[in-house]
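#struct-pred

JT: dropping the chains for the assembly here, can someone run the whole complex?
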Amino acid sequence: MKQHKIFCLVLTVAFSLMLFGGFSLFAEQAPKAEKAEKVEKVEKAKGPYLFGVSIWSDSGPLSKKVISNLRYAAGVLGAEVEVAVDGFKPDNQVSNIENLIARGCDAVMICNCTDAVVPKIVKLADEAGVPLALYFRKINDPEIKKYAESSPYFIGNVHEDEVAVGYNLGSALADKGCRNAVIINYNKGDTTAENRYKGYKKAFAEKGIALLGEQWDILDAEPAANAAESFIAAFPELDAIAVGGGGGGPLSGTIRAVKNHNKIGRIRITASDFGPDIAESLKNKEVAAMSGGHWTDPFFTFILLYNYVDGTPLSKKVETITMQPIYLTSVSEAQEYMKWCMDQPPYNDEEIKNMTVRHNSSFTLSDLRKIAAAYSLQDVIKRHK
Amino acid sequence: MRGFKRIVPYIGLVLIIVLFSALTGGKLLSFRNLKLIFNQAVVLIIGCIGVTFVMAQGSLDLSQGSLLGISGAMAATFAAITPGLSLPLAILTGIAVGMINGTLLAFFKIPSFIVTLCVLFVLRGLTVIATHSGSIPLPFAMLSLDNFRIKASILVTVILAAYYAYTYTSLGKNMRAIGSGETSARYSGVPVERMKVLAYLISGLLCGLCGWLNVVRTGAADSKTGLLFELDILTALVLGGMPLTGGSSAKLQSAIIGGLMLALLSNGMVLVGIKAELQQAVKGVIFLLAVYLSFERESVVMIK
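RK: done, full complex below.
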């Protein structure tokens, strides 16, 4: 018994010394990245390129469309897509990138939940030598942006002009005569949520709309419904609810709450991220205006990565591509959107192939920028009608 | 039957390893992947070890997820001032919360289920406040602390210290005595109240350490950090053979085996390419099976 005790004590002391040895090592060599743990890519047998996608969910309207569109594009190019759900939690996002790299992905892409998680993700990609790109996100923090851009494996990001999205939707509320609004938004620290918020606030200030309240961290229908009901009860003068996004769930919860209080038409709702019932919502005057259809954003990220992995990168430096979402304000527009963007892919097989240097040797980054910038309902109709 | 129950977790572990090794063509057991699994299991195993002390007394600790969040937030906040403060502050936060949990249970006689559930909500609110509903980044230099050697040293030290305290000291024996019967333990001279506070203090201390390890791993503290961590701990413990009702039969091995099993399972499913939507369902079925196999129907009691 006594021997056991001594044995345990000796081992404990030994490992404690190792531990503090580890710390002193850190103190001396902190800036050297090679001392950190490496998640190395598993060499896989030659086969189709595998792209790892970390996504917040696989069940909401937006995420489902993102996944199906990526799988379609990958299929056209003979590649495969591996999806991992992160629930917008930083620890899950780090685990997903580790797992996707370990799975043997040739490239990974992520919609980061906050700027703060980017350095770690970039570091994992660097250590494994796996190209990484962000979709739906821009990096707001200048230090983190600098850190990411110094990485040889960070390819770039695609995002929408989110301030403009918030501003345009806020202006649409003013055009409908709204004067008292609240904002229901998702994560603070999330650049998309914060930029849309900035846009809404700018529009409200310019157009004379009072911002009565705001609720953050709303990603699902249920909490959105609860928040909306609380606002409706607290502010009888409320005539507008701006839903920052969240993939469609928060919008459906908000509509439900407004319906339950018989305020449809008296409280106008704007939102980002269309659901499948957008035409119905506009017809029933449940929403005043919406932005969405930007699920092509991860597709452009995928194209950036595909060309890189295929040995024909579109650029030798970190690139940012900005695109505009689609705005819908009428039932006819919504019907056109469903017909041309949802019932068929916005880019057909030939167009997808032509976005790769493998199939179109003259394709450049500038061409991809032009395609992304031109994306709109009219653009899709013009190309496919 | 009892003997069989004892080896079920080991059989489960071997089955998971054999199954996923076969399905992944040996990728699961590659050195690189084993390092990755270790990386993902460290926090869970340490969290499980802490909760084992609580469960040995027949109590529960459901505050772990939020405690992981708030201790991580404290670590990140103070790391911005000086990185050296991050670890002590995370651990102190854990100890303080453990003291509160234990005191409310032992001296105010509020059941552990209620106490820790309430503390879970309070701490989540505090985490949201501390992170300003967003996230706090760590200084870039601290990313290097996510280092295999440091984590391995911490894990082995924690395992050995906990094993020694749990198995060979009066502390562990007293806690297990409370788990087999509080009244008889009291009559035998066990300082029941003090032991209850101590169990939560250990659980809090280790969870504070987990908070620091987690924040170093992700490079940021976030308002959502640690969400549902308490359920991961319970799942891992049950997978490791711990009865959900806890008690004196609680074994420290359950924490290690269970933590490893859960990490292997998650990693294996990703390597095999099981769709994300199916992974949760698979985990749920396995959890149900583990509860069925480990549940001691003949000695079922209320969780104190």
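JT: nice. The radius of gyration of chain B is 19 Å. The mean pLDDT of chain B is 89.
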